[in-house]
Protein: NAD-dependent epimerase/dehydratase domain-containing protein
Amino acid sequence: MTTSVLIFGASGLMMGHLLPHIQQRHGSDFTWTAYVRPGSKGIAFLKSINVNIIEGSWDDKEKISNLVNKYDIVWDSGDSHDPSLPNVIVPALLNGQRTTTLVRFSGTGNWITPTGGNDDESARLYDDSNEGDIRSIHGEMFNGAGDLLALEALDKGVNVWILCTGGVYGQRPAGVSSAGVFVRLYTNNALQLGYTPYIGNGGGHMQLLHIQDLLSAFDLFWAQVLSSIDSNGPVPKDVSERYLFAPGYSVEWKSIAETWSKLFKDNFQLDLSVKNVPVEEAGFVSPLIVSEMKAKPTRLEKLGWKLAGPSIEEELPLILPSGSQLPLA
Ligand SMILES: NC(=O)c1ccc[n+]([C@@H]2O[C@H](COP(=O)([O-])OP(=O)(O)OC[C@H]3O[C@@H](n4cnc5c(N)ncnc54)[C@H](OP(=O)(O)O)[C@@H]3O)[C@@H](O)[C@H]2O)c1
Structure:
């Protein structure tokens, strides 16, 4: 029997890498369907890898509600910051037989402490093996509103799994137009400002994850998802066993500002200098730039997860080569 999967966000950077990866590893174990915006640029790519397409808007609640219970797995990889999609998916799953598994991507933007942009060892460390840390999620966190809905579904008997990643970076597969959420936000923020900002001493950290390390984290995560669907597999009860961190490595915000400034100069002949600014002048990414991000992936580390991908300094010039269209769509 094949497992049917319905994906939201299938045309994005992460799924653009993950779908071919899973297909290579699991052959014909799955049938794939993507719910995409009408006319999505990703349709040709998805069709080329045998993904069925349903075109529709996230506003079409009835259409989505009528779909989700027909699949073995519903995978929310759309926009973890925006709760509008889980706001439709979760009530529909709760109205159904609760036989559909919900998989969601979230982000370590949840696990930050404002430090004025400075490094601060006393900033709170969040650890995914600590149930209290997962239960501390609230609606004001970056991805908190959608996460809370997913956790509500879990508490009401839906088989829910969440992988919470750091800012993901990597080259775009042919046919995938998105550079991913983090690279898009940081690049467009700097272009809008005309400089690459840091706050305080710039020693606050962001956690970043190369696509190669996302794939290795995902394999460990996915094995657990599949085991929970298999009726003979162990089904964890503790919420922290179902909400796994994959943050990547820590990079200082000043170093990120330098990396992007160099990229703009070398690949686009744009002079966006590194600038030390107050939080009000750091643009829409300022809540991250003013903070220390500290997420510890104890669950995946215990399973042997190790980082091996290239750094953002090495990879960024290849992600946005000269001639890339800016700002990023
Ligand atoms: N990349 C990161 O740094 C990062 C870090 C942590 C968490 N995440 C989360 O992981 C997931 C995947 O990230 P990603 O970087 O691969 O995303 P992405 O490249 O931005 O792609 C997401 C896809 O979702 C669809 N989408 C997004 N907003 C939509 C909307 N309002 N209405 C309809 N469709 C919409 C779009 O597909 P169509 O145009 O085909 O419909 C888009 O290609 C997201 O939930 C993201 O928030 C990402």
User: Anything to note?
Assistant: The mean pLDDT is 96. The two ends are 39 Å apart (CA to CA). The first helix runs from residue 13 to 26.
